[in-house]
Amino acid sequence: MHRLLCLIFVLSFVVAAQSPAPKRDLTGIWEPVRAIDGIAPNGARNMPADGKPEHELPYTPFGLQMLKKNRSSNGPNEVAAADENDPGHMCDPQGFPRENLFELRATQFIQNPLQTVMLYTYGRVYRVIWTDGRELKQDPDPHWFGYSVGKWKDDYTFVVNTNGTDARTWLDNAGRPHSEDLKVEEVFHRIDHDKLELSMTIDDPKVYTKPWLALNKIQMHLLPANFDLVEMMCSPSELAEYNKRHASGAKK
Amino acid sequence: MTNKFIAGLSMVLALAIAPAALLAHHGSAVYDTGKSVTVKGIVTEFLWANPHCLLEFDAKNEKGETVHWTAEVSNPPDMIARGWNRKMFAAGDEVIVVMVAAKNGEPIGRIAQVTVKGKTYPGMGAVPPDAAKK
Which letter does DSSP use for residue A168 in this model? Predict the structure, then answer.
């Protein structure tokens, strides 16, 4: 029985891969091919906080001040879990763009003529991306997940611009900061029926002297339509229990 | 049946090509990751929770005293992909736990591998090289 299921599973992927991708359509459940590209514990996958000079971000003096206030339990200056001040690990909404830069797992895209909606595994949160032709707001109120508009650059390239993010959130799991002036560009490029690339650029002149590429064409693949998204929530009571039983005793 | 099989296979495939040592919410700052500790003990409680599942167990030290250990692995979705489930440990089960331990000497660890009811499961992160010698 398992052999038959394996054969059906493999054949379904072969058939799907050979069929053309639908135009201007990201509908489906997409997941990073390499789990580590989405989980990214050491920060933005293309610029991890690993101490390498080529991954140093172009901070402004103000950006450096912000960075020094963030105590992360990951990266070259990591602290014990009990000593961190990561708002996401305290169960604040991790917000955008961190939702793409940490714990990006199976993500469902739902489309209608006006919107593309992304349903994320981590935190069971969603984002609405307006596709009705509107522009970004000029002076948006800050929101945990910002304000997003998307346009199809061509039949297989969907470009999303976001502003109005909340400066209380961290950019990534390494504690990189951002201001309310942050602008993010995501590029979803559909390679074929079951392959998608995601790139993301960070532009925040208050914090960084120039835009930088946080994701560089990470590979995502289409999961079966009946894939069950697994619940993965930050629960304050569970976190308190973890800190009481484990993290507080393991402090350096 | 088919759905669970395909979903499970997809997760296993995705995790199989990820560097296991990096699947973590929190870093390794508190652990001595250069050496392993292998402890045989009796389970007192298993917490199937975020951000990390916790296995609590009692073990005897060299002096014959009972020491209460708390050891973590990753979150439930990651551990499901490694064959774990929330009912795999019950109070009273004997376990053999291979882990990295806290630098401060407290009986706190991160499980690299665990054996229960005759079956061995991968934990969170690589098994330290010296564990194979024990």
Answer: T
The pLDDT tens digits for B71-127 are: 999 999 899 989 999 999 999 999 999 999 999 999 999 999 999 999 999 998 777
Q: Specify which residues A200 forms β-bridges with.
A: A186, A215
Distance between CA atoms of residues B72 and B95, nearest Å: 14
CA dist A71 and A55 (Å) reads 19
∠ CA(A101), CA(A32), CA(A76), 5° rounding? Answer: 40
Q: Are A195 and A176 in contact (CB under 8 A)?
A: no
Chain A residues with CB-CB distance to B99 below 8 A:
none
Domain boundaries, chain A: 22-250
Is residue B24 a contact partner of residue B125, using CB atoms and an 8 Å limit? yes
Structure pTM?
0.83
**Options 3.30.1300.10, 3.30.1490.110, 2.40.50.140, 1.10.10.10; which CATH number does B2-133 get?**
2.40.50.140
Does ipTM come in above 0.85?
no
Q: Is A5 within 8 Å of B47 when comparing Cβ atoms?
A: no
Chain A window 65-84: which residues touch B at a Cβ cutoff of 8 Å? 73-75, 78-81, 84
Non-local (6+) Cβ contacts of A133 within 8 A are none
B20 touches chain A (CB under 8 A): no
Single-letter amino acid, residue A113: P
Q: Judge whether B26 is closer than 8 Å to chain A, CB to CB.
A: yes
Share of chain B above pLDDT 70, in %: 78
* Nearest-Cα residue of chain A relative to residue B26: A73
